[in-house]
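Hey, resending since the last one bounced:
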Amino acid sequence: MFEPTLHQYDSQDWDRLGPSSHLSWDELACHDEHSTPYPRDTPEGRVEASCLSIEFEWVRHLCGDVPIEIGSAYRTLAWNREIGSTSSSQHVKGRALDIYPPKGHTVATLLRIVRARSQMSGSKLRGIGEYRWGVHFDTRPQTRLARWRGGRVRAEVA
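The structure tokens again:
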């Protein structure tokens, strides 16, 4: 059975490499002009980063263990407003990733994989959005799965 590899909070790997084997702090940072870092030094930030990393590693594994490009992760409120998103965005809380289809996958296949993960035992995926550029997923604290297609938020480009 697949088991995501996470780095421990108190390890040098956590600080230097990121929360998991295939997700770095640079990928989780805001795309604003300051590249504002993910808030990993707070207890909430550590929990959110770990939860998001587990889901990312699962999705990556289900895609065939191929690299997946992150379009957007953490956002400051100011950057979130600037790109036209809402103040209730899960990106502001560090709970969301926008991902592009990896090589050999379409948005439709990536969406099916993310939805399949959301149905697996232990999954914390609670928000899934389909866009023409890729898929948004998040780990919002609710029991029901929120799903949507499109919207006015545009994908960020690093």
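Residues 35 and 97 are 16 Å apart (CA to CA).

Sorry for the duplicate.
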